[in-house]
Amino acid sequence: MALKEFSAQVEEGRVGKDGKPSVGPVYRNLLSKNEYPPLDRDVTTSWDLFSLSAKKYAGNKMLGWRRFVDGKVGPYVWKTYQEVYDEVLKISSALRASGAEAGCRVGIYGSNCPQWIVAMEACSARSLVCVPLYDTIGPRAVNYIIDHAEIDFVFVQDKKVKELLNPDCKSAQRLKAIVCFTSLTEEEKDRAAQMGIKSYSWEEYLCMGKENPSEIFPPQSFNICTIMYTSGTSGDPKGVVILHETVAAFVRGMDLFMEQFEDKMTPDDVYLSFLPLAHVLDRMIEEYFFRKGASVGYYHGDLNALRDDLMELKPTCLAGVPRVFEKIQQGIKKALQELSPLRRQIFDALYRYKLGWMNRGYKQKYASPLADLLAFRKVKARLGGRLRLVICGGASLSTEVEEFLRVTCCAFVIQGYGLTESCGPATMGFPDEMCMLGTVGAAAVYNELCLEEVPEMGYDPLGNPPCGEICLRGKTLFSGYYKNPELTRESMKDGWFHTGDIGEILPNGVIKIIDRKKKIL
């Protein structure tokens, strides 16, 4: 049987400065073999993605969260697209009343929740630049980002207010106002006043917007949508500038990619969000869900109790990093150890049987309905019962874990590869293709990919197999590092973004991450 190809080779290898071949062939998605598909003329900004869906899917559930009642977490409650849109307009008007002008930078600091998204969309409504704040790489990161991005306003979670107003966070003194996702204590209000910062609870800011309504000022496609700071291997965080047209192109590319498959995404799909919204993967997945009029439910804040959110929300889509899926596999295997030896043997036999048919090319749901009925539906039930798409990013998932999930969870399991600079996944795996096991798939619709030689590490893009540094170009790349033209020039050479990751191209055109480029002294 002929080898199935998943990418198109559109250019031959290029010659380096020394006259020797140093760059391998250029690869594209098969949907972009001859040229990139046309973009959607009606959706050119992040604001278009949300506002058009708010009109089209006004009554659909959009954002869900769990309220705490008497110290215990309750069921999910929801806001519709229309309710979120109305709230966005009020927060947008309040920002205008507070003095926010187009291009002004607005920080958002806190865990995933509906207020995070409302603040983000309010920024888009007024052509403001959303700048996520995070402290996962140390407390000084927030101080640095506020100063470097010249942030004027911050929306902040109640748990983070104390850190923001900490005397060590000297850059906070430049802020004009902070808005808490919930409410502030009297002590926090006094501290903000001493620093010359106006402070508001969420309800107070909504009331300000209601009393001072103003027309929206939507962005143009070439305006900055967000500056996402990402930690480098050393030094201060880098501000990755992402334009509105970049976000729109990413979502359009996902639309075209998903249309290839039998199982289509619908407004009934539900995504469980727990990866940080301050990072690009979760942000882009949510943008895509909003485009489809689907629902996003947020975890209640405790990753150790994520299974409780899974059982309550019953999501159809779940995205995570390898550690999350390793824990899921460990949990399932622990449950298996509690079964009798005979039942464990039956489970193992059913596993091998279904895997065998999947390796022969059968789709996951048709490989062995009997095995699903007898064993694997119970695994699916532990993940909420409705899961049909699992996405892994952030790092490579081990082949063992990926295979286990593909067989047992009765859902599509795919890996992708990308960076903040590529606005999320630059490559994506295909569902039901077992030959992609252990790889990160083929180039995304609006991206091109090639490998560059790394002679000091022995990687040759024209070798067998082709290996080298992964380089990207296309419509979903960032426009540069904020206030750092030197670093931008260093990473963008001849129109190609050099990722620093080492990849290997397999014969069917998919890529496998095998190493990280190291600076040799």
Structure description:
Residues 69-482 form the AMP-dependent synthetase/ligase domain. InterPro entries: AMP-binding_CS (IPR020845), AMP-dep_synth/lig_dom (IPR000873), ANL_N_sf (IPR042099). The chain is α/β, with parallel strands linked by helices and 521 residues long. The chain has two domains: 7-30 and 316-516, ANL, N-terminal domain (Rossmann fold), CATH 3.40.50; 46-69 and 80-245, ANL, N-terminal domain (Rossmann fold, 3-Layer(aba) Sandwich), CATH 3.40.50. The chain has 16 helices and 26 strands. Strands 6-5-15-14-16-17-18-19-20 form a nine-stranded mixed β-sheet, sandwiched between helices. Helix 5 (161-164) links the parallel strand 9 and strand 10 (177-180). Helix 1 packs across helix 8 (244-258), helix 2 packs across helix 3 and helix 2 packs across helix 7 (202-211). It is globular, with a radius of gyration of 24 Å. It starts with 6 loop residues before the first strand and ends in a 5-residue tail after the last strand.
How much of the sequence lies in strands comes to 25-35%
Structural class by SSE content: alpha/beta
CATH topology of the largest domain: Rossmann fold
The biggest sheet, with number of strands, parallel, antiparallel or mixed sense and barrel status, is: 9 strands, mixed
End-to-end Cα distance? 47 Å
Could you say which overall geometry the principal axes of the C-alpha atoms support?
globular
Helix content percent band: 25-40%
What is the CATH superfamily classification of the largest domain?
ANL, N-terminal domain
Number of strands: 26
Instruction: Provide the domain count.
Output: 2
Strand order of the largest sheet: 6-5-15-14-16-17-18-19-20
With helices defined by DSSP (H or I, 4 residues minimum), what is the helix count? 16
Broad CATH class of the largest domain: Alpha Beta
The CATH architecture classification of the largest domain is 3-Layer(aba) Sandwich
Average pLDDT reading:
93
Low-pLDDT stretches: none
> Rg from C-alpha positions?
24 Å
